[in-house]
Records
---
Amino acid sequence: MDTDTRRPFNVLLYGFSQIVVIIATIPGFLPKSIQFLAILFVGWISCEIIFTQTTGSKSGNLALGSAILAQFHRAVDLVLLTPFEDLKDLGDKDTSKITERSFGKRVLWVLKLYTNPRGIGLSYEPSHLPPRFSPSTSRWKFVVSRISRFIICLFLASVAEVATASNPGATDPRKLMSEAPFHWRALGVASFGLTAVCSMIMIQAALAAIFVGCGLSSPESWPLLFGSFLDAWSIRRFWRRFWHQMLRKVSL
């Protein structure tokens, strides 16, 4: 068995790269040349993490590398390619230009943009989002629903993990998954997909419960991450209506 000699994933280095992106995105704060250099620097950090560091597992490395690459594409799009006036907050009652606002308001604007990859409430919000919660939804009713959703997905993810651990096609180091019988390969794919979907739903449910519960957000700002699987009766509809749309802005 090959030994992975790469360094452990450096959380501080990754966090620093995100701070650089946020600073580079603040409207009117840095000249374009410095923004460009900042993005190059973040790109170097991203490559450093992806190619020289490890989470300790192949699946973890794949997930982390995919997330970092997607975030880098988003940073390039927001900082270098998209004019600030095209990133309008549809609920913003301030009619002044974003570059004319106070530094604190610009920072808050960037944080909302940065933590909202689907563009909920922004001018590039996807047109095929799952149904929203009503603005009249009670804060605590919403929090309870998100906690319930978290628990259900935790159970399903645990079942999927047990199925993976019990799958001889995935656990036999002497054979590749492609060499296993069809039913074991099908189970492996289903378990992997269920774990991924449940993990993402759990993260969103937890964040939604925290932010709405603390009064920092409202229920209608948290539509479900995935649509109905019944709408996924074609490849196009799978990606357009069922799958999460957190990459919609950078894939237009």
---
Amino acid sequence: MKKPSISMISAAAPCGLIVFWLGMGMAVHRFPSEYDWRYMTVSDLISPARNPHGHLWASAGAVVCWLCGWYWVEALARLYRQRTSGRLPGSVVILRVGFLFTALSPVVPSWWLPIRKGHEILALIAFLGLCLGVVLLTFRRLEEGFRRRGKSAWSHLSASLVAGVALFPVFLGGLAQAYVMYVLPQLHWVNLSWRARGVPIYLSFAFWEWTTCMVLSVYIVILSLATPARLDTPVGGTQAVR
């Protein structure tokens, strides 16, 4: 069977992300009322009840994003199997989980989920999986690149700082949500009423959720475009993936 070309592998994740953002944009356009991303979450767009005319656009974007992301991650998995006798690094395994839950969160029927806010939990798992997988993969690639350039003394710290930026919005979003839960419980879940009451956007979980989506998109595009030129690149080669 003919191996997929590097152009197909590198373009897979960026194409999926383009479709994801187009789907979300159409879902916003079809939303029955005003949609303010700073105070309204992704789940508002995906929910059939809250977005009856646009939720299929959001769901379709998420599913296509999963298909393209899965294709890219499986290419990485194939490379690692060739180099490590079948053993996969944690970054690839976790990325698989993240992309899988990206597809599950919009398509699994609510009545299949026996817990309250089941879709939000699935979306949270998707975010955490993608964030952690992206951070680990970014760290490995950067550290290897710095060492090849003779910067081994700072490679670990530099790679950690650059990779850690992807987790920064998640960390701030968690802090904001914890603050609201324990200090401002009267606000309940984030919605447009927060804007009317003058609540700062940095306390909004929705703001940090969308910011995380944007940051992850940038990181995934860069990582995808940096896919090795050949799936059979030998260990120690200048384009070896970590």
